[in-house]
Amino acid sequence: ELREVAWRVYPTALDNLGLQEALAGVSERCSIPIRTDFALAEPLPASVETAAYFVVSEAVTNAAKHSAATEIQVSVRKYGPVLVVQVEDDGVGGAKPEGSGLTGLRTRVGALDGRLHVHSPSGGPTTITAELPCA
């Protein structure tokens, strides 16, 4: 229930600080060290920034709760007209792609005609990649 409430709450940090600083806030709140590679030269559509924020937030939350990870890597880069958001943890893997959080991410990313990939073999690592069209 709490996850559903949080899912619907718009992250006001996006409006006030932008995507990079909003993601820095996610990193600060996480108990696992996060290395971030953020490379964007121009602002993105608000819907894309929002989806990117939720992908990172959900993936980091899942890693902290379920993966026994000691480190998380977040990459946010634009390749042509597509924003690629990747979150990888060094945990035990075995994430269930049909879990409510990942299903919600698929819906959010799909609403933008994007794609969400989850690779989480048993033994790890888990990599979640979202491809979000920016046009």
What's the number of domains? Answer: 1
Roughly what is the average pLDDT, rounded to an integer?
A: 89
What is the assigned CATH homologous superfamily?
Histidine kinase-like ATPase, C-terminal domain
Number of separate helices = 5
Portion of residues in beta strands equals 25-35%
CATH architecture: 2-Layer Sandwich
Summarize the structure in words:
With 135 residues, the protein is an alpha+beta fold. It has one domain (2-133): Heat Shock Protein 90 (2-Layer Sandwich), CATH 3.30.565. The chain is 42% helix and 26% strand. The protein is built from five helices and five strands. It has helices at residues 2-8, 12-17, 19-29, 46-67, 100-110; strands at 34-39, 72-79, 82-89, 115-119, 126-133. Strands 1-2-3-5-4 form a five-stranded mixed β-sheet. β1 (34-39), α4 (46-67) and β2 (72-79) form a beta-alpha-beta unit. The longest helix has 22 residues, at 46-67. It is globular and about 35 Å long. The model has no long low-confidence stretch (mean pLDDT 89).
